[in-house]
């Protein structure tokens, strides 16, 4: 009668005369029997002994040997055909490029090429802004204003400068100033008295102008201009001419405009475009000194000036006061 451990699973029995085959269940059962047969103390002793005094294993003997593997880059080797093909292709490309570069027809076509982007970028490069404006004054003295230093530049003026002190003991002392941006470089002279730094040395005098200040102009400034600035311009500031929008000066705003008329020749030709004009808007909001900066021709430039001179503006201001400000306006000519 066969032992219980060697009983065969019906599924593992083969044909008659086959050897018995053990199943995984048989191995697990045999292992469980061995563990169960070992007592707790013996198992504990064995574990402590293996931890403190582990058994020395025999040295490891390596029996395998490295096998040389062929490089993947040398799979195809060096083939003369591939080298020759690469050389021929490179020589052909170089020869073709050289022949095209020396061809007269190609050179003439390149010379006739039209540049799509204008190389002249000078109009787009920011230019240093020229200081504009000016001022002048005087006390109706018979003598011109002598050479002297300028008062302190300030954004507002409370007391105009004077070269002749008429009240040596004022109740409220205020420093005289001229209306010029503080970052503007003004001509200075090393003299104690106030005067015109561009004038000549002479006896003390506030000048032949009016409205306070020093010079031959009016407005409380220094120089021949009008306003509280310095120079031949007007409205304050320095440098002459008129103000431009920015730096505390507001731009004039159109409050009334009329559309320009078409010239007869431009209407017949169905000519359209834009005329750009330079104008100066004075303190009353009236345009003056028009000048064409981009023309169209065919009589449209004159029609543009004629229309703009009838426009009315809200004048530009500086420190709340109206001043003459330069501006550019666009006049469009369109046919429906």
Q: What is the subunit arrangement here? A: single chain
Low-confidence stretches: 1-17
- Residues in helix, %: 10-25%
Helix count, per DSSP?
6
Query: Order of SSEs, N→C?
Result: HHHHEEEEEEEEEHEEHEEEE
Net shape: elongated
Distance between the termini: 120 Å
Tell me the number of strands: 15
Backbone CA Rg: 52 Å
What's the overall average pLDDT, rounded?
79
By secondary-structure content and strand pairing, the structural class works out as alpha+beta
Describe the main β-sheet briefly.
5 strands, mixed
Topology:
Blueprint: H1 24-37, H2 40-52, H3 80-101, H4 104-111, E1 133-136, E2 152-154, E3 177-179, E4 214-215, E5 222-228, E6 231-232, E7 236-237, E8 243-244, E9 253-256, H5 264-268, E10 273-281, E11 287-294, H6 300-308, E12 312-314, E13 317-318, E14 321-322, E15 325-333
Parallel strand pairs: 2-3, 4-5, 8-15
Antiparallel strand pairs: 1-5, 1-6, 1-7, 9-12, 10-11, 10-15, 13-14
């Amino acid at each position: 009668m066969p032992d219980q451990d060697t009983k065969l699973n019906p599924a593992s029995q083969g044909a008659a005369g086959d050897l018995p085959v053990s199943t995984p269940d048989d191995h697990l059962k045999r292992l469980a029997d061995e563990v169960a047969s070992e007592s707790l103390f013996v198992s504990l002793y064995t574990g402590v002994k293996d931890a403190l005094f582990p058994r020395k294993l025999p040295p490891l003997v390596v029996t395998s040997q490295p096998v040389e593997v062929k490089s993947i880059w040398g799979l195809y080797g060096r083939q003369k055909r591939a080298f020759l093909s690469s050389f021929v292709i490179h020589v052909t490309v170089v020869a073709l490029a050289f022949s095209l570069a020396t061809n007269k027809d190609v050179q003439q076509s390149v010379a006739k090429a039209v540049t799509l982007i204008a190389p002249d970028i000078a109009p787009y490069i920011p230019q240093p802004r020229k200081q504009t404006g000016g001022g002048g004054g005087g006390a109706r003295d018979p003598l011109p204003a002598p050479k002297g230093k300028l008062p302190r530049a300030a954004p507002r003026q409370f007391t105009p400068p004077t070269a002749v002190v008429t009240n040596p003991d004022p109740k409220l002392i205020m420093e005289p100033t001229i209306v010029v941006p503080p970052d503007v470089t003004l001509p200075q002279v090393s003299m104690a008295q106030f005067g015109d730094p561009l004038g000549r040395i002479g006896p003390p005098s506030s000048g032949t102008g009016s409205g306070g200040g020093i010079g031959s102009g009016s407005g409380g400034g220094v120089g021949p201009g009008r306003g509280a600035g310095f120079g031949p311009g007007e409205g304050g500031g320095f440098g002459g001419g008129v103000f431009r929008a920015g730096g505390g000066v507001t731009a004039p705003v159109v409050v009334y405009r009329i559309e320009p008329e078409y010239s007869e020749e431009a209407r017949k030709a169905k000519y359209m475009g834009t005329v750009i004009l330079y104008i100066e808007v004075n303190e009353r909001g009236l345009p003056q000194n028009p000048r064409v900066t981009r023309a169209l021709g065919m009589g449209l430039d004159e029609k543009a000036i004629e229309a703009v001179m009838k426009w009315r503006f809200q004048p530009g201001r500086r420190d709340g006061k109206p001043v003459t400000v330069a501006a550019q306006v666009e006049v469009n000519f369109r046919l429906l």
